[in-house]
Amino acid sequence: MLRVGELLRMTATFPSLRVGGADDLLEVEHLLQAAGLTRDGLDACARGGMLLVARADDDCLMGCVALETFEDAALLRSLAVTAGARGHGLGSALVARALDQARAAGAHEAWLLTETAGPFFAARGWDAADRAAAPAGIAGSVEFTSACPSRVPVMRRDL
Ligand SMILES: CC(C)(COP(=O)(O)OP(=O)(O)OC[C@H]1O[C@@H](n2cnc3c(N)ncnc32)[C@H](O)[C@@H]1OP(=O)(O)O)[C@@H](O)C(=O)NCCC(=O)NCCS
């Protein structure tokens, strides 16, 4: 489990974590593609201000994560860190910041789909979940209905 002090240190290492928008979309798409993730449904996140981006001092995109909220449930998606920046806490910091946003938006639980990073999320408080148990908004999202095949594992956590 991530220690609070460790998280603060990591967040301080990446001061340019900020809310992204339409201007970030092209680079975010490239990062997602390089990480093997879909961009389907991403525009709605950018429009809703639920896209977070991390940029280096030279403005180069290092990481991103997106969030969709459906009443009291949030869907975390599009988490990616550029290959050269992995292993230094940025992925964890992006998730933590996104979940803070989800709580601020009134969400009490978070859901995600992942084929590649189950152990990463399990180590950060997420549990495997039954797709059929997802709240209606999550179940009706682009990720659940069309972007990810039904075999992709589902995870959830309380917020
Ligand atoms: C998952 C990802 C965002 C993690 O970013 P990161 O910046 O390396 O994450 P952190 O530095 O905060 O955490 C690194 C730790 O997570 C572990 N980890 C990273 N990716 C992992 C994975 N796919 N499965 C299991 N563990 C993973 C690392 O081994 C490391 O462990 P340690 O702390 O014990 O050394 C990054 O690996 C990535 O972009 N992967 C490709 C896209 C992807 O799978 N996204 C998730 C889809 S929902």
Describe this structure in words.
The chain is an alpha+beta fold. The protein has one domain: Aminopeptidase, CATH 3.40.630.30. It has seven helices and seven strands, in the order αβααβββαβαβααβ. The protein has helices at 4-13, 25-34, 42-47, 90-104, 118-122, 136-139, 142-147, and strands at 17-19, 51-55, 61-70, 73-81, 109-113, 127-129, 154-158. Strands 1-2-3-4-5-7-6 form a seven-stranded mixed β-sheet, sandwiched between helices. Bound molecules: coenzyme A (COA). Coenzyme A (COA) binds at residues 35, 37, 79-81, 86-92, 112, 114, 116-117, 119-120.
**Over all CA atoms, what is the radius of gyration?**
14 Å
Element-by-element helix/strand order: HEHHEEEHEHEHHE
From the spread of the alpha carbons, the general shape counts as globular
Distance between the termini: 15 Å
CATH architecture: 3-Layer(aba) Sandwich
Provide keyphrases for this structure.
7 strands, alpha+beta, binds coenzyme A, seven-stranded mixed sheet, disordered N terminus, Aminopeptidase, 159 residues
Blueprint (SSEs and pairs):
Blueprint: H1 4-13, E1 17-19, H2 25-34, H3 42-47, E2 51-55, E3 61-70, E4 73-81, H4 90-104, E5 109-113, H5 118-122, E6 127-129, H6 136-139, H7 142-147, E7 154-158
Helix pairs in contact: 1-4
The structure holds coenzyme A.
Residues 35, 37, 79-81, 86-92, 112, 114, 116-117, 119-120 line the site of coenzyme A.
